[in-house]
Amino acid sequence: MPHSPQSPPVRVGLVGAGPWARAMHARSLAAGPETTLAGVWARRPEAAAETAAPYGAPVAATFEELLDLSEAVAFAVPPAIQAELAVRAARAGKPMLLEKPLGPDLASARAVADAVSEHRVVTQLVLTKRYHPATRAFLRAAEDITVTGARSCYLHGAFLDGDLATAWRLEHGALLDLGPHLLDLLDAAIGPITTVRSTGDPRRWIELTCEHANGAVSQASLSGAVPLPRARTQVELYGANGPLLYDTAGLDHEECWPVLRREFAAAVRSGTSHAIDAHRGLRIQELLHQAVA
What we know:
By secondary structure, the chain is α/β, with parallel strands linked by helices. The protein has two domains: about 140 residues, 3-Layer(aba) Sandwich (Rossmann fold), CATH 3.40.50.720; about 120 residues, Dihydrodipicolinate Reductase, domain 2, CATH 3.30.360.10. The protein has a six-stranded mixed β-sheet. The protein has a five-stranded parallel β-sheet with strand order 2-1-3-4-5, sandwiched between helices. The protein is globular. The model has no long low-confidence stretch (mean pLDDT about 95).
């Protein structure tokens, strides 16, 4: 159900005030027209004020106050904080725009998904690349081929320094941060992943080998600690029809956010979760858990 121009914008409160919250979530939600930034709450009030100020949004003194200000909430916080607060937001009946991974581990992710199911709240997952037209074209093309094997990578050097070298990323490495993107794409493009094995160190370089229900085998190389001039994300599918390549090098990621925002508003107004929702997030978390089990 598309968002109707006659529908009032969805008032979305933002949880978090870090670099990602400032650069992407706050800016996108405030841009509208499908949403407005209803308020910002963070554990550091000064950071919340800095994030809210450019858009004239209020700063909530507590998480509960943010829930009162908002029709829906968006999370841009570390996984452990999201997992804790998302359960409380679900109990309050608030639709949620959730980051990946759902939580730092499988138990916390399952608690979020269970709360979502129990309270029947609308959810959508910020797997950013999934909202780009080129990604959707790649997945449609993949439906027409029988895949024998696949290679993929998501590589960058952002964990070496800069805004994205945050504590949770440095602790858990590329598997939790970058892994959801590739596991989601491989699972969607080839068919359900049944087993995942890993080698390496997620804080340096980790290699995943996936077996799919249809017999295909895929691999994923992940690192946030290799110096590159720009991030490299590629998926190569191989089968009888020849290779199919997905490469984000030429993509403008700014094209993802208006689609994401529009579809979240439509989900909230229709009362129906997006196809990429908390349960998809749990499925990905199960694969992450299996990779390190």
